[in-house]
Design a protein that fits this description.
Length: about 450
C-alpha cells in the first residue's frame, strides 16, 4: 500500500525537475545578457578613451578655455571631445556628472524600468554592485559674434519645442559675461555619408517619417527651421530613430516679412506682371542688367546651407513659409535616391538657380520666378525648356539602364519627391500630408514587427 503523501511527493518531484532546468536556463540567459551589457559598457569606455587620446591640442585648448570661462563648470560636466563646429557655434560631447540630481524627463532614449534585466535568482544582490552608467550631453558653445537677439531666439525656440517628438530639447543654458552655453542631450547617430547609399526603400521611408514627424511639430508651432540637411538630423540606422537639431537659423513664421507677390491671387499677379517694366521692354531689349537701375535693392532672409535652399529663398521671397523646410527635406530624399552627396553643389545663388533649372527646365523656372516678381533668364544652351523627369534624373544618377527599371516602390518614392520639390511653395506637400502619404507608410509594417519582436523578448 502506497501512502497518498508519497504519491503527491513523487508527482511534485517529477513535475519540478523541468522547472529547475528552466530556471537554470533563464539564469544562464540573464547572465549572457549581463555579460553583453558589460561588453557594451567596455566598448563605450574604450571608445571614450580613444576619443580622449585623439583630441588635438587646439581642441583641448578650446575645451580648457570653456572650462575656465565658466566658474564651477568642471564640477558639473567633464568634456570629452568636439563633435561639431559651425559658423556660429562649436559643440562638445561631455559627461553629465550630476545627472541623477535633476529631473530628466527630457530623456526619452532610455526607459530603464522597461528594459532593465530582472534580478538573477540564486545570486546575492550584494555579490555584484551595479556600475554607474555614464550619461552624456552636448555642450553648445555659442560664439560671441552672434547677436544677443539671435542667441535668445534660439533658446526660446528650443524651449517652446521641448516636448515635441524627434526634436532636440533644451536641457538648460548658462551665461557668464558675454559667453552663452546651451546644454542639450547627446544623441548617438551615424555618419550620413556612411549609410545613405545602402538604404533600402523601407529604410528611406522610416528615415523620412522620423524627419517629417519633427517637421510637423516645428511647423505646428509656426517655426521655420531654415537649415534642414543631413548633418542637422541625427539619425541612428540601428535604432531607426532620428532627432532634429541646430535651431541657430530658425525663426518664427512672419518675422520681418513683407507681402510678396506669391501670396496674391493669380489675377493680381498677372496684372502686375503685364504692367511691369520687364513686360514692356522684354521684346525690344536684349537680356541683361540695366545700365541705371533706380529700383531699391530687394532684401530677404537667405539663411540656410547652399544646395538645400528652396527656390523662393533664391528668388528673395519676402514672405517665406514653412514650405522651405519641405523643399530641403526633398533634397535629402533626392540625395539618397540618386546616391550622390551633395547633389547640388553651387557656389552662389545664381549657380543654384542654374542647377535647379537644369532639372526643371527654363519654362517652369521662369514661372517660379514670376511668382515672386523676379525674372529668370539664361543663355546657357545646355539648359532646355522642358527639363527632365525625376525618374530620368534618378536613373542617370545611379547609372541604370532599361535593363534595371524602377520598382513600384521606387516610383512611389519619386512621386513623393515630386510633391516635396514643387517649385511653387503653395503646391508643396505639408509635413502632415507627408506623414499621411502612402510612401512614408511603407516602412511602418516592418518597424512595428521589429518593435513587437523586441517586446516579445522581454521576460513576463
Amino acid at each position: 500500500m502506497v501512502d497518498e503523501d508519497d504519491v503527491d511527493g513523487q508527482d511534485a518531484a517529477t513535475i519540478g525537475e523541468p522547472e529547475v532546468e528552466d530556471e537554470e536556463e533563464a539564469v544562464e540567459e540573464q547572465e549572457e545578457v549581463v555579460e553583453e551589457e558589460e561588453e557594451e559598457e567596455e566598448e563605450e569606455e574604450e571608445e571614450e578613451s580613444s576619443d580622449e587620446e585623439q583630441v588635438e591640442s587646439s581642441v583641448q585648448a578650446d575645451m580648457d578655455r570653456l572650462q575656465h570661462d565658466f566658474p564651477g563648470f568642471r564640477d558639473r560636466y567633464r568634456l570629452i571631445k568636439r563633435i561639431g563646429e559651425g559658423t556660429f557655434s562649436t559643440v562638445f560631447k561631455a559627461e553629465d556628472i550630476h545627472y541623477d540630481r535633476y529631473d530628466n524627463s527630457w530623456d526619452h532614449e532610455d526607459d530603464l524600468s522597461k528594459w532593465a534585466s530582472p534580478p538573477l535568482k540564486g545570486r546575492s544582490s550584494q555579490s555584484r554592485s551595479p556600475r554607474k552608467r555614464a550619461r552624456y550631453v552636448a555642450i553648445k558653445k555659442i560664439y560671441v559674434t552672434s547677436s544677443p537677439a539671435r542667441i535668445l531666439n534660439e533658446l526660446e525656440l528650443l524651449h517652446d519645442l521641448r516636448q515635441c517628438p524627434s526634436v532636440c530639447p533644451l536641457i538648460t543654458a548658462f551665461r557668464h559675461t558675454d559667453q552663452v552655453v546651451a546644454i542639450l542631450p547627446y544623441f548617438r547617430h551615424g555618419d550620413f555619408r556612411a549609410y545613405f547609399r545602402e538604404m533600402t526603400i523601407p529604410d528611406i521611408a522610416i528615415y523620412l517619417r522620423s524627419l517629417f514627424t519633427a517637421l510637423k511639430s516645428v511647423h505646428e508651432h509656426k517655426i521655420l527651421h531654415r537649415d534642414i540637411k543631413p548633418t542637422n538630423f541625427l539619425y541612428d540606422p540601428t535604432t531607426q530613430h532620428g532627432v532634429l537639431v541646430d535651431f541657430g537659423l530658425a525663426e518664427r513664421e512672419g518675422t520681418d516679412s513683407k507681402q510678396c507677390l506669391c501670396h496674391e491671387t493669380r489675377e493680381t499677379r498677372k496684372h502686375r506682371q503685364a504692367s511691369s517694366v520687364w513686360a514692356q521692354t522684354s521684346m525690344t531689349t536684349q537680356p541683361g542688367y540695366p545700365k541705371s537701375d533706380t529700383r531699391p535693392s530687394r532684401r530677404a532672409n537667405r539663411a540656410g546651407t547652399r544646395g538645400f535652399r528652396a527656390p523662393e529663398v533664391l528668388f528673395k521671397c519676402t514672405e517665406q513659409t514653412t514650405a522651405i523646410d519641405i523643399w530641403s527635406a526633398g533634397v535629402i530624399l533626392l540625395t539618397i535616391l540618386s546616391k550622390r552627396f551633395p547633389f547640388f553643389n553651387s557656389a552662389d545663388d545664381v549657380e543654384a538657380m542654374i542647377e535647379i533649372a537644369t532639372i526643371f527646365g527654363t519654362k517652369r523656372m521662369k514661372a517660379a520666378g514670376l511668382l515672386h516678381g523676379c525674372v529668370f533668364e539664361t543663355t546657357i544652351p545646355t539648359i532646355g525648356q522642358q527639363g527632365f523627369t525625376m525618374e530620368k534624373i534618378i536613373l542617370w544618377s545611379t547609372c541604370r539602364t532599361e535593363d534595371k527599371p524602377l520598382t513600384p516602390d521606387e516610383k512611389l518614392a519619386i512621386r513623393f519627391l515630386e510633391r516635396c520639390m514643387e517649385l511653387d511653395p503653395s503646391r508643396r506637400i505639408t509635413a502632415q500630408e507627408a506623414l499621411d502619404h502612402e510612401f512614408l507608410n511603407i516602412g511602418m509594417a516592418s518597424q512595428e514587427t521589429a518593435d513587437e519582436d523586441e517586446v516579445d523578448m522581454l521576460p513576463a
